[in-house]
Specification:
heterodimer; A: mainly beta; Immunoglobulin-like; four-stranded mixed β-sheet; 8% helix; B: 473 residues; mainly beta; OB fold (Dihydrolipoamide Acetyltransferase, E2P); Jelly Rolls; 3 domains; nine-stranded mixed β-sheet; 4 helices; TonB-dependent receptor plug domain-containing protein (chain A); CarboxyPept-like_regulatory (chain A); signal (chain A)
């Protein structure tokens, strides 16, 4: 990455000094456009001294002590440069420094599949952390972001909630599930380029971070590059068209600076059928320099977006309809109309105050408010047959199970010819009912989370001397999340009866006892209605020490979380436990971490980090059935995590490499999942919540990244992740349901206690092993190409814990199934391992400058060989016992087989941009 | 920077046009031409009927093709049946079946359709006019011998004497809905008078109560896996007449308590799964309107006069009673006296099995009974049978018959709502007719017991008749 060029001649020590201060000065320009580059990091190695360039590309750094130093000038989009300087006294002016674009990195992050996968965030398998990584230059991490992410690769096998995403130092991860909602700033790539990523337990100046690290985006208008940038992109992955326009003014004489950005992304469908894309993005940042010490910055972000979702499917369905098949749409008005749309519209307003108390001390204070809605639409049908075209009774396997060959054939023909939602039938049913003055059979509704979140925080940074820096922060956060279902469309009907048909009595059928048998219309809340509130207070302190041979740091955090549910409906199934406030859940957490880097010499480093932290249970995992009642997960515990890693880093002019070994252990984790279970206590079928507590997980492995600048124009790189992510104990399990006194459920709808024998099962965390080799060629005439070959293995299906509990072998009478065969059982609960696969990606581009316009083109092709591969999947909870699983697995085509996501076939992304 | 001042803004303008680019991702408007295609298909079919390419058959005629207990009949000719839907699975009381009758009002026949469709109520709603093109569909029984003639899609793979539902894929080629939905006027019937010919029709029964022992019980017994039969009784008679109300455990009102007042029930006439009894099946519990006072019954001792009494004890050979007529309208079989071994009593018997006759129609006509001398009169009798699948027995009354064989066919005969032994009843058992109120009739009334055999060698059964009385006050 480092490129020492003839520019070193620019290193000229200016002699004439007027004061006793040692100043380092310079101006950084882009080699292509010759425009100044702002916000470039200028750092004196082995010290805490850093600064960034201003909008004119200029920097000035005060150096306190005389001596010989290495200066590093770096920016995520450009190649890093290093200079050796000798200070005696006075000013060292580096003059004009030209930075070369890091060609493999101008690919903007939109080509990574961040927001696509996050659409399916309700499922465990689809969880992507690539958004975190765009700011890093580490070969391994960039490979993970650009090459591995489409395979749902997870760094260290950890959930993305272990990575903290910050905007101006304010944490943006959702309190509900701990994950960042990337859609909330999607399409604003131009203005979110100022990012810093701290990998793993490494230090961040803003936060303690999580096990995966922390990424901070700086949106200050004064840190944006002045000028205008217009770009257009086209792709067949998720959106088809994207335009972005961004403009930043220079700083006015009165100290004002403005940045505006707008974007629009549209598409009728991406790789998967009917995955519509309808997103806009608006951004405004207004900066005001009050005086040399005080600056204010306001940021407003609004990125309303609507995306059509796609379904996971069984192998039977993929075999018949192909890997782009999506069951959620049906033909209507000559279009593919998707019934499941995720809409995110959560405006964010943030006011930041930057106070340079002294040259060495700064205090940043933010107040942020976010509000709006997240909606996930779907069909509801308490008066109609299931509209799902893949409903098990419509597929050939269902008929084959009963040996009805001709019916199976007809079902297959029918599924292949149609196999989509029949909107016409839905409208016909509703208008038939309307004519008969009956309520609608079907409606379209959305599950809503309307959050209001206020955050106030203060971040303090000070350099005690050249070698010691101190960071501290305190944050107060308050969330009120209103959760309910809302009718979107009556689909030709007149009204919809708000009852749960599966309940036994008329009283139990009520979702809202205060309004029995209510008929709802468009815009009405129904089904469930509750508030979740959360108050979070957290602090963090950190000390960083940087010396010639060793760097080290120590950090600690402390936080207090208070969560509560307030039911707004009295639910007929839980009359006494649904309305009003729940018990208050209070948790105190702490975390400590430390790390050290020992420099064997300038080129070989050894780094070690360790941390231990506790984490209050997520809101999501605190209430066992939050839609229906106030019940709290029994014996709810804080999650505890221990993480250690050891790295060897080599930085030579030709080879840059890092090898890291890591070990993380998570204890007392809680997980809740929901499904329709057959064979829960013998032969019964019920919608259940499965609560798994006291889970222990072990994540260990190696990360390797090597990059070699073979010639001035050719670069080779290789990366490998070899991991083992397993359950480390047999956690406790119980089920809850709104069925009472039935099957395994007692009068409160709770099952008995089970132990799920998960120990040594693999965690579904994408491919445990991923390898990549590739090259890049950069022509002096500003064009470049690159290609990588990637290999993935050890991807596992997400297992159903109930199937690994005593429920599996227990018949309704409480005894073991009479025909229970231990060997066969062992075979049945074997975890599916997906086939290993290879993916080839290509990238190329060209840029040039014409009369002040900087023009750039680039394109990527992913999965050039059109490899079909399973990127994730899960076992369906329907076959919860031995008899049923045995019957189903004995079939050639199982009726309730595992559901999968397939990776995309060959896709392209093209981009053209102009800046001036 | 030396740039043309306008160029960038043109660029910005052009790109901003994209901001209006529209993605139609939330349009769920009702299609304008909803149902148009179906109407067109129906119109085509009606034309074909007009042109005699298709034959429209009545439900009654169609049901004649059903032979209980035998292999289903595959329809090979171009016939179409028209009906009015009368059942609804909206409340879960029907599963993958519905009934339709031949007229919205005063139906004469109804039929069951087995279909692999749940929530069929939102397609085949009550009152909907439906045409079914029958070619390649089947007529038969779902449970062999259950006596409920049903339209199905195929022969069962497990029992060749049974049919299975019409599959979803078959539906579009056979079922044609008119866009017309009519109002179904329930046919008023008396509880005792229901018989097999009423199966598949929508009726109203008045003056009902649930027996007092059912107080606190729900429509369905929670320990039943499938259906529960609850006894219903009427006070319109002397003593109680009973019938069963059948409710599925899956009905949404299954756990609702039975009302203990008196009143009426609107329901579809059907049979229990085994075909042993007639039952009433509800579309919704709202069709049970029993909030009035419970009625009280009257006993036989309230009626001291006897206008007619015949126990056949003195008869022998062909029944020959003074002023009665034993009339063979068709066929060679007469009513004959016989001695019942189980009841140790003599009775009248008729059956056309093995007669070789194409049709049998034999009447046993009583003497004239003067009805104007008393205020209220009740007829009762007992029946028994053996293998009566293909035949039937009716009790009728006429007040304008002249009393001669020659004029039987000219007289007006009304079917009386008496309970007559059902096929499936044990052959040893005698079934009481219930007390049939004759107060509505004036002048001189003649009671007739008419036996009809279908001519089928194997199926025509035997009926036995005894203890005919008319009491009065």
């Amino acid at each position: 990455m480092k490129k020492k060029t003839a520019l070193i001649v620019l290193f000229v020590a200016c002699l004439g000094s007027l004061n006793s201060q040692n100043l380092l000065k310079g101006t950084v320009l882009s080699s292509v456009s010759e425009n100044p580059i702002s916000n470039v990091l200028v750092r004196i190695k082995n010290t805490t001294m850093t600064t960034r360039t201003d909008t004119h590309g200029r920097f000035v750094l005060e150096v306190l002590k005389e001596g010989t130093y290495m200066v590093e000038i770096s920016d995520p989009e450009f190649e890093t440069q290093n200079f050796k300087i000798v200070f005696s006294t006075g000013v060292v002016n580096l003059g004009t420094i030209l930075l070369f674009e890091e060609y493999l990195q101008v690919q903007d992050l939109s080509i990574i599949t961040i927001t696509d996968d996050e659409l399916n965030a309700d499922s465990n398998a689809a969880d992507n952390i690539s958004g975190l990584l765009q700011a890093t230059k580490d070969v391994f991490l960039r490979t993970a972001a650009f090459e591995f992410s489409a395979s749902f690769f997870r760094i260290r096998g950890l959930d993305s909630r272990n990575g903290k995403v910050l905007m101006n130092g304010v944490e943006m991860n959702k309190i509900y599930d701990g994950r960042a909602q990337w859609g909330n700033w999607g399409g604003l790539n131009d203005v979110l380029r100022n990012q810093e990523f701290s990998n793993g337990l490494a230090v961040s100046d803003f936060t303690f971070g999580g096990l995966l690290g922390a990424m901070n985006m700086n949106t200050q208008a004064s840190k944006q590059r002045p000028g205008t940038r217009v770009s257009y992109s086209s792709s067949n992955r998720s959106y088809v068209h994207r335009v972005m326009v961004t403009h930043t003014t220079g700083i006015s004489k009165k100290g004002w600076v403005f940045t505006f950005s707008g974007s629009r992304r549209t598409g009728k469908e991406g790789f998967n059928e009917a995955t519509t894309y309808n997103a806009s993005g608006f951004f405004a940042a207004i900066g005001k320099k009050i005086n040399d010490r005080h600056r204010l910055n306001f940021t407003g972000i609004f990125t309303p977006n609507r995306r059509g979702k796609s379904s996971p499917n069984t192998q039977e369905v993929f075999d018949l309809k192909g890997i782009a098949y999506n069951e959620y749409w049906g033909g209507l008005h000559g279009r593919k109309v998707n019934s499941r749309i995720k809409e995110v519209a959560e405006p964010l307003l943030m006011l930041s105050h930057y106070w340079d108390i002294s040259k060495k001390t700064s205090l940043q204070t933010n107040i942020a408010y976010q509000f709006g809605k997240i909606g996930n639409s779907r069909l509801d049908f308490n008066g109609g047959a299931s509209p799902s075209p893949t409903y098990y009774q419509k597929l050939p396997s269902y008929f084959l199970r009963n040996n009805k060959l001709s019916e199976a054939y007809t079902a297959q023909e029918n599924f292949m010819d149609n196999g989509q939602i029949d909107w016409w039938r839905i409208f016909d049913a509703n208008s038939t009912n309307a004519t008969a003055a009956l309520n609608s059979a079907y409606i379209l509704y959305e599950d809503r989370n309307d959050d209001k979140q206020l955050t106030i925080n203060t971040i303090y940074n000070t350099a005690i001397n050249n070698n010691i820096a101190l960071n501290a922060a305190i944050e107060y956060k308050q969330l009120n999340s209103h959760n309910f279902a809302e009718v979107i469309d009556l689909l030709g009907g007149v009204g919809y009866l708000d009852i749960n048909n599966f309940a036994k009595t008329a009283a139990q059928m009520q979702n809202d006892v205060a309004n029995p048998n209510r008929v709802v219309a468009v815009g009405d809340a129904f089904k469930y209605n509750f508030d979740l509130s959360s108050v979070l207070i957290k602090t963090f302190v950190q000390a960083q020490f940087k010396y010639h041979k060793t760097d080290f740091f120590l950090a600690a955090k402390f936080s207090k979380t208070t969560n509560q549910r307030t039911g707004l409906y009295q639910n007929g199934r839980f009359e006494n436990s649904s309305l009003g406030p729940s018990e208050v859940l209070s948790f105190t957490d702490y975390g400590i971490k430390a790390g050290a880097t020992y420099k064997l010499n300038g080129r070989n480093l050894i780094n070690v980090k360790a941390g231990y932290l506790t984490q209050a249970p997520l809101l999501r995992n605190s209430f066992s059935n939050s839609r229906e009642n106030n019940n709290i997960v029994e014996n709810l515990q804080r999650e505890k995590a221990l993480s250690i890693d050891l790295s060897y880093i080599r930085r030579s002019p030709i080879i840059t490499a890092r090898v890291t070994g890591y070990y993380a252990k998570i204890r007392e984790a809680t997980e809740i999942s929901f499904y329709f279970g057959d064979g829960v206590g013998g032969d019964n079928t019920a919608f259940v919540q499965e609560i798994l507590t006291g889970i222990e997980k072990k994540h260990m492995g190696l990360e390797i990244g090597i990059e070699a600048q073979v010639t001035a124009t050719i670069k080779l790189k290789a990366a490998a992740a070899v991991g083992s992510f397993t359950y480390a104990n047999d956690p406790n399990l119980y089920l809850t349901s709104d069925r009472t006194n039935e099957g395994v459920f007692d009068e409160n709808g709770r099952s008995g206690d089970y132990v799920s024998n998960l120990k040594n099962y693999k965690i579904a965390a994408g491919p445990h092993n991923a390898y990549s080799v590739g090259f890049g060629y950069r022509d002096p005439n500003y064009w470049w190409v690159g290609s990588t070959l990637n290999f993935f293995s050890n991807t596992f299906v997400d297992i159903a814990p109930l199937t690994r509990s005593s429920n599996f072998y227990t018949a309704e009478d409480g005894l073991t199934f009479p025909n229970y065969d231990l060997d066969l059982a062992r075979e049945l609960v074997q975890q599916e391992k997906f086939d290993a696969y290879k993916v080839v990606n290509m990238v190329g581009g060209k840029s040039w400058k014409i009369r002040g316009y900087y023009i750039s083109f680039f394109g990527t092709i992913n999965n050039l060989l059109n490899t079909a591969y399973k990127s994730g999947g899960f076992e369906q909870g329907r076959n919860a016992n031995y008899t049923q699983l045995k019957e189903d697995k004995a079939l050639k085509k199982p009726v309730f087989g595992n559901k999968y996501w397939y990776g995309r076939g060959t896709t392209y992304f093209l981009n053209a941009s102009v800046s001036f | 920077m030396e740039i043309n001042k306008t160029t960038p803004w043109i660029l910005v303008l052009v790109t901003s046009l994209f901001f209006n680019a529209c993605v139609q991702d939330g349009e769920y408007a009702v299609p304008q031409n909803l149902g148009a295609e179906e109407n067109l298909k129906l119109a085509g079919m009606l034309d074909s009927i007009q042109n005699n390419q298709l034959e429209l058959k009545s439900i009654k005629d169609l049901k004649r093709l059903c032979v209980s207990g035998k292999e289903p009949v595959k329809i090979v000719s171009n016939i179409v049946v028209k009906g009015y839907v009368i059942s609804s699975d909206a409340k879960g009381n029907y599963f993958r079946e519905f009934y339709m009758q031949d007229a919205p009002e005063n139906p004469t026949a109804g039929i069951r359709i087995a279909i692999n469709l749940t929530n069929s109520y939102n397609k085949f709603n009550v009152g909907r006019v439906l045409y079914i093109r029958l070619k390649n569909l089947y007529l038969g029984e779902i449970n062999t011998g259950d006596g409920v003639c049903t339209i199905g899609g195929k022969v069962s793979t497990t029992d060749e004497k049974e049919i299975e539902s019409v599959a979803l894929n078959q539906m579009k080629n056979h079922f044609f809905r008119s866009d017309e939905t009519t109002i179904i006027v329930p046919k008023e019937v008396s509880l005792a008078g229901l018989n097999a010919s009423d199966i598949g029709t929508f009726v109203c029964v008045k003056g009902l109560v649930f027996p007092i022992v059912l107080e606190g019980k729900a429509y369905a017994d929670p320990t039943e896996d499938f259906d529960t039969q609850r006894k219903i009784q009427t006070c319109q008679s002397v003593g109680y007449a009973n019938l069963l109300l059948e409710t599925s455990s899956f009905a949404s009102f299954a756990n609702k308590s039975l009302p203990m007042g008196g009143g009426s029930i609107y329901a579809v006439v059907a049979k229990d799964y085994n075909g042993h009894f007639l039952v009433l099946v509800l579309n919704t519990s709202e069709d049970v309107k029993m909030t009035d006072e419970r009625c009280t019954t009257r006993s036989e001792s309230d009626f001291p006069m006897t206008l007619l009494s015949e126990d056949f004890e003195t008869a022998s050979g062909e029944v020959n009673i003074t002023d009665w007529i034993n009339y063979r309208e068709e066929g060679t079989k007469s009513w004959r006296s016989y001695s019942d071994t189980y009841s140790q009593s003599k009775a009248a018997r008729i059956g056309s099995k093995n007669s070789g006759d194409a049709h049998t129609s034999t009447w046993l006509l009583t003497k004239g009974i003067y009805l104007d001398g008393t205020a209220e009169e009740f007829l009762s009798f007992e029946t028994s049978n053996s293998f009566a699948n293909g035949s039937d027995l009716q009790v009728l009354i006429s007040t304008d018959w002249e009393g001669t064989v020659a004029t039987v066919s000219r007289a007006a005969w009304n079917v009386l709502p008496a309970k007559i032994v059902a096929n499936g009843e044990g052959y040893k058992n005698w079934v009481h007719s219930t007390f049939v109120n004759l107060s509505a009739y004036t002048g001189t009334g003649f009671i007739a017991f008419r036996y009809r055999g279908s001519g089928n060698v194997y199926f025509d059964g035997t009926y036995e008749l005894d203890n005919i009385t008319i009491i009065a006050k």
